[in-house]
Amino acid sequence: MAERRRVGYSVHREILDEGEVDEMAQKSDSKTSLSEKVKKSMSCSGPRLKNCLLGSVPVMSWLPRYSIRENALGDLISGISVGIMQLPQGMAYALLASVPPVFGLYSSFYPVLIYFIFGTSKHISLGTYAVMSVMIGGVTERLAPDSNFMIWDNLTNSSIVNISSRDAERVRVAAAVTFMSGLFQILLGLVQFGFVVTYLSEPLVRGYTTGAAIHVIVSQLKYTFGISPERYSGPFSLLYTVLEICYLIPATNIGTLVVSIVAILGLIFAKELNTYLSKKIPVPIPVELISIVIATVISWQVNLQEKYGVDVVGVIPSGLQPPVLPDASLFGQVIGDAFALSVVGYGIAISLGRIFALKYGYKVDSNQELIALGLSNTIGGFFQCFAISCSMSRTMVQESTGGKTQVAGALSAIVILFITLWIGTLFEDLPKAVLAAIIFVNLHGMMKQFMDIPALWRSNKVDMLIWVVTFILTLLFNPDLGLAAAIAFSMLTVIFRTQLPKYSILGQIPATDIYRPLEDYNQVKQVPGILIFRSSATIYFANAEMYQEALGEKSGIDITKILSAKKKLEAKRKRHEKKNAKKAAKKNTVDMEGEPEREEQNGIAVIEMDAEPDPSLPRAIVLDLSPVNFLDTVGVKALRSIQKDYGEIGIQVVLACCQTGVVDNLQTGGYFNDKVTKSCLFSTVHDAVLHCQSARTHRQNEEITATHL
């Protein structure tokens, strides 16, 4: 690589403080009042109404411009491919949600059509998602446990579960929590709360989804081994469930276990074959569809349920369910779960949406995405769907098979509609163990996220800590409480990092106006007589006191000790003056004016207050506030205290690199007064240094002049 050519430059200007910069740049003091902002937001015009309508219903803006020639074929192939994937995944993820498999198909139909109308991402595949499904399953099994539906069976003289009543109640619970989560998403979208996703950092999301994947795996082990463990809820329920499964393993149904092993091995082999052939065939082989077709045929021919006790899907009603109002009596019991679902679902969808928007050069509206997901869940709640988000695996298939617009998603919904109306009943003999196997194999991507730990260890240890702690909290406290605890921990790391910033003394790179930390550079030299101090974090109530302590430690100035010594000296001087005054009053001399004055002067001369300052102390301190983006009242008070205390011992304190908001905070916080004005603020560190040097030279010249006089 050729060496970059260096271009020199030279700027000649006066030293400018913040007040002079404001005057030169003609700073505007006009601010829009709250009433004006409200009036502007409520005003309506033709173009604004049109933009609002097109923004609220995006399909009206892009569908009329849809290019059939460029997009139709790719969207058709992509829609059919994704629709075929939706069938087995929808049925499998319905098991995670603890509802009958057909409701997974409903959840892959209604919400997808709603998102087609209101969504802004062209590539994400909306529908059932493992993490969301296991969160729904936690709610449904908590509010509708098997123990509430036990009936006496006269044939076996034992209690059995009334499955139809239990499933009906769980569907009502799932619909209620889905409806509530949709309302939360709509509300957050209307108040422009799309930025909430910024609190879900990538390490947090990946650690959370990995922990949720473990919950998914454990929840499906009962279908793999053909056992019926007791359902636990609340913190540490995962540990109790694992212990229960280990206790029941001797009662494993061998037929179910054989089906599970064969299905898992077959799916893994087929997936690897699919990966190998991905570059040779335009459309991926529908491995999961082929698997459930083969498994259904074998189960039907061999009669696995009757001969070997293998649990199958059971009755799948044909057609669509009529809309039903969600059970409002359940809202109070699911409000916390609904909020967690709304945040998780939105966070996953917007993260994937932004990735593909950046890749293909279009914009995803975060607030509109909230509204689109909210409408999908709210309307889906009326049709007994459970909460949805987007799936990484389906999204990758939709993009790789040529999908370019939301039309691909709509076509996948039509495929699901066709299956639900005419084909769904053919899968009644499908073993649930095969659906569990599909879930296990589809989670291999999430399991690979464990490789994030060594990568984060090398790049950012705090992010690695967030990943690990989020994973552990999700395991211990379940996905709902685990998410809240993980977000709280992530926020605490931000607070701790602002409380433990890096404090530096800056020096000048010779012959430049660039200043860098002395400890990080060998050729950086400290400016004589001037201390330049910088913190890597903003200054607020949590670290303002530490900022003052760090300044004293880095500068080597024990300001408390010096001020205390000065006060003692001042008190001693006053006592000496008082003593001399008393002596003068007692003297009975002719010259009543001269002698006492001379003795008083002699007394003052003994305790000299204006002696030459300590040469070891700097003449000025420059506080570089470039990392500071705001100041609260405690931060302003700390800076005012620094200016006052160091000023009392003859050290000038000036501020540099203040952002406009920080200057406003200083002004409203009472930093400025008759003695401290904007002339103590400078736009650059170099301006501040030159000002301090010129002030020092000016004082030295005055002292020389006074000496000669």
UniProtKB/TrEMBL annotation:
Annotated Gene Ontology cellular component terms: membrane
Entry annotated with the keyword NADP: no
Pfam family, any one: STAS
TM regions (residue ranges): 93-118, 173-200, 247-269, 281-302, 338-358, 370-389, 409-427, 471-496
Domain of life: Eukaryota
Location of the region described as Disordered in the Swiss-Prot/TrEMBL record: 572-600
Signal peptide: none
InterPro entries: S04_transporter_CS, SLC26A/SulP_dom, SLC26A/SulP_fam, STAS_dom, STAS_dom_sf
Annotated membrane topology: Multi-pass membrane protein
Keywords: Membrane, Transmembrane, Transmembrane helix
GO molecular function: secondary active sulfate transmembrane transporter activity
Residue span(s) of domain STAS: 520-692
Localization per record: Membrane
Record's keyword annotation contains Lyase: no
Compositional bias annotation for Basic residues: 572-586
UniProt xrefs under PANTHER family: SULFATE TRANSPORTER (PTHR11814)
Protein's name according to its UniProt entry: STAS domain-containing protein
The organism of origin for this protein: Perca fluviatilis
